[in-house]
Design brief:
The complex is a heterodimer. Chain A is mainly beta. Chain A has a single domain, classed as Neuraminidase, CATH 2.120.10. Helices cover about 5% and strands about 45% of the residues of chain A. Chain A has a five-stranded antiparallel β-sheet, with no helix packed on it. In chain A, strands 5-6-7-8 form a four-stranded antiparallel β-sheet, with no helix packed on it. Chain A has a four-stranded antiparallel β-sheet with strand order 9-10-11-12, with no helix packed on it. Chain B has one domain: Glutaredoxin (3-Layer(aba) Sandwich), CATH 3.40.30.10. Chain B contains seven helices and seven strands. A seven-stranded mixed β-sheet of chain B has the order 2-1-5-4-3-6-7, sandwiched between helices. The chains are: A mainly beta, B alpha/beta. Chains A and B meet through strand 4, strand 7, strand 12 and helix 2 of A and helix 1, helix 3 and helix 5 of B.
């Protein structure tokens, strides 16, 4: 596996995830790129667990602009820098501990500009969703450019990318309904490997209409071994399960106790960006779906420090995808789950410590 | 500022990026259209996606009025949704119409046109010659040019249904004025 330092197993989160090993990443891999911004969500793992693929965004360089907004805890303004950061796709080889640049910053097909999503298929090919260039770039496992295509004109750039066993791509991001409301349309767009548009599905749920764009435009997807697609809208805490053709098969998921239904919130609007306290107390988005195999889906939620009873950065739920029932619920974690390998190991990342942690499910949790 | 707060806000702001670009587009709209009027399109050769040459001046000279759309597949999605207008201009007026697409990669451009079933004739302006000559800052931008190649009317992206309805009226007025 990736070249881990420790091999002594011990319990990491009670008896849920058992740590088998950990790896300290080199300094050149910066998981924190601006202020407190972390790039750990944009990490993918090769199927054999030996290579890490990372999106490196440097907001201190590139075509960027400054943006002022408010804090959730008192209205004190602070500054963010957005736009087109200097961007790279990095490969870290655990065995040799070498870092290689797979794609540099730019507008050409083999380059990236503000990539926001990355996925790896069963053969190790890498799929990068490029926000600024509105492009999907496909590389082989060594970073050799294979192909690219521009995403649908009607869509937001891919917020998340999933690829199934047939190398069909599913892009999460709103595909506007030309006859619909501003934030309505299909949320998953399907392409083949060559970039041919196939279809779109997952129409905006009612909840999005009750939210404004602040919350309504973030979604994550995951694909299981039967090519079923799991979709979650960040603030909704509900998992939609689709067939590979886009037919809704089921839904499951349980909103946490702190979650406030949007109709009960006085939501911020564009002209008045100051969010009410209740907004922040409820804004705990689901930021990752990770299929572990054997009908287990891990759901990671980001906390924000305003939720009573939680002190960790993340909360993890584990669902049985057959009946949709939670196996584990509300497991607090300092670490973020980002990948699995062919041995069903589960990999976490610690952005603070720059560490990768390899785990396995505790025996009580295994089927 | 706690890092966790910052994370949530940045995620939202990333998603706002497209909207901010659109707002920026609107702010520049007036200045851009004023700049372009009365300028002659450049005397350059561009090639369609099958490799056939089109000289822009010669194209304009073939008809009293020609309709040109400057666009890029990477323009904002909402802006590109007006492409239904481009198709309809041709069917309504039987006018000379040409899409001039600036994009660095021809293969991606062809794939994009195929995915969107865009039926208007398109030439590939890989170097952005027309955009540069007219100092176009943002696209799509629609132009009417006379037979000498002078731009007599410009029109930025039409986003709402209302804007698109008004488009036809404005276009009619231009045609009447030209007569």
């Amino acid at each position: 596996m990736i070249g881990f330092l420790l091999t002594i197993p011990f319990l990491l989160w009670g008896d849920v995830f058992i740590k088998d090993a950990e790896l300290q990443l080199p300094r050149e891999i910066k998981l924190v790129t601006i202020g407190g911004y972390t790039g750990w969500e944009q990490v993918a793992l090769s199927p054999n667990g030996e290579n890490l693929y990372l999106l490196d965004l440097d907001f201190s360089q590139g075509d960027t602009f400054k943006y002022y907004t408010e804090t959730p805890d008192g209205g004190k303004d602070f500054r963010l820098i957005l736009g087109s950061p200097k961007s790279r796709v990095l490969l870290y080889k655990g065995k040799t501990k070498q870092t290689k640049v797979l794609a540099s910053s730019g507008e050409m097909p083999h380059q990236v500009s503000f990539p926001t999503s990355i996925a790896v298929d069963a053969d190790g090919n890498i799929y990068v969703g490029d926000n600024k260039n509105r492009r999907i770039t496909i590389l082989d496992s060594n970073g050799k450019f294979l192909s690219s295509f521009i995403v649908s004109a009607d869509s937001w750039p891919a917020l998340d990318v999933g690829v199934n066993s047939k190398r069909e791509l599913y892009l999460a991001g709103l595909k506007l309904d030309p006859e619909g409301r501003l934030n309505s349309g299909d949320w998953i767009t399907k392409y083949d490997f060559r970039g041919n548009y196939l279809n779109s599905f997952a129409y905006t749920p009612d909840i999005a209409f009750k939210l404004n764009l602040w919350q309504g435009v973030s979604a994550n997807i995951e694909i299981d071994e039967k090519d079923r697609i799991y979709l979650v809208f960040a603030p909704e805490h509900k998992i939609y399960v689709y067939s590979s053709d886009g037919n809704l098969e089921s839904t499951f998921g349980q909103a946490p106790e702190w979650f406030i239904r949007p109709e009960k919130l006085a939501l911020p609007v564009w002209d008045e960006p100051k969010a009410p306290p209740d907004f922040w107390k409820s804004f705990t988005p689901v930021i990752k779906l990770l299929y572990l195999g054997d009908s287990r889906l891990l759901v990671a939620t980001k906390t924000n420090g305003l939720i009573k009873g939680t002190s960790k950065e993340f909360i993890l739920d584990l669902y049985d995808t057959v009946d949709g029932k939670p196996i584990l619920y509300g497991v607090e974690s300092d670490y973020f789950p980002f990948g699995t390998d062919t041995t069903s190991a589960i990999y976490f990342i610690s952005p603070e410590e720059g560490k990768i942690i390899k785990t396995r499910l505790g025996k009580d949790i295994e089927k | 500022m706690k890092k966790s707060y910052l994370y949530g806000i940045i995620i939202m702001l990333i998603l706002m990026n497209g909207i901010l670009l659109y707002q920026n587009y609107n702010l520049k709209k007036s200045r851009r259209t004023e700049n372009v009027k009365n300028i002659r399109i450049p005397d350059v050769d561009l090639f369609d996606l099958d490799g056939h040459k089109t000289n822009l001046r010669e194209f304009a000279g073939g008809s009293p009025l020609s309709f040109i759309v400057i666009f890029s597949p990477t323009d904002c999605g909402v802006c590109l949704s007006e492409r239904v207008l481009w198709e309809e201009v041709r069917s309504r007026y039987q006018i000379n119409l040409l899409g001039v697409a600036s994009h660095p990669d021809k293969r991606e451009l062809i794939q994009w046109i195929k995915n969107h079933r865009l039926s208007i004739p398109v030439v590939w302006d890989s170097a952005g010659l027309l955009r540069d000559a007219l100092e176009v800052e943002s696209s799509p931008l629609k132009l009417l040019v006379n037979s000498k190649g002078s731009v007599i009317w410009t029109d930025p992206a039409r986003l709402s249904k209302e804007e698109r309805v008004n488009f036809w009226q404005e276009l009619e007025n231009v045609f009447k004025g030209f007569d």
